[in-house]
Amino acid sequence: MLLERIVSALGDLVAAAESVADEWIYVHDLETVWAARLRAIGSERTEHPPDEVAAAIDALVQEAHRITDPHRAIDWLSTLPQATLVAIAEDAW
Q1: Under a CB-based contact definition with an 8 Å cutoff, are residues 57 and 2 in contact?
Q2: How far is 33 from 65, CA to CA, in rounded Å?
Q3: CA–CA separation, 85 vs 93, rounded Å?
Q4: For residue 48, is it left (φ>0), alpha (ψ between -120 and 50) or beta?
Q5: Is the pLDDT of residue 16 over 80?
Q6: Which of 35, 18, 31, 17 is nearest to 73 (CA)?
Q7: Is the pLDDT of residue 93 over 80?
Q8: CA-CA distance, 37 to 90, in Å (whole number)?
């Protein structure tokens, strides 16, 4: 599933961000909340996304995988899900 790729990328961002000890709980809270929301949306959708949406998700995943700085990873734990929601025409918080 397309959104599971985003959830997996969130896990990679968490791994990059965990070295910031003062943010450890925040990092894991973001992962928990966003993974749950994305999985809930994914379970409701049965149609295949248009090619351009799939390409946008691919680009987001690729960008997330380039991030190695822990502080940038923390920023992207919020940015990645929000950008994903916009790409799939869901309400972003």
Answers
A1: yes
A2: 20
A3: 9
A4: beta
A5: yes
A6: 17
A7: no
A8: 11
pLDDT on residue 45: 86
* 58 Cβ neighbours under 8 A, 6+ residues apart: 5
User: How many other C-beta atoms can be found within 10 angstroms of the C-beta atom of residue 36?
Assistant: 11
The two three-digit tokens of residue 47, written as one number: 């149609």
For residue 18, pLDDT over 80 is answered with: yes
Main-chain phi, psi angles of 24, to 5 degrees: -55, -50
pLDDT in tens, 21-67: 999 999 999 999 999 999 999 999 878 889 999 999 999 999 999 99
Q: Across the chain, how many H-helices and E-strands are there?
A: 4, 0
Amino acid identity of residue 76, one-letter, is W
Residue 72, both tokens: 């940038």
Give the integer Cα–Cα distance in Å for 71 and 90.
27
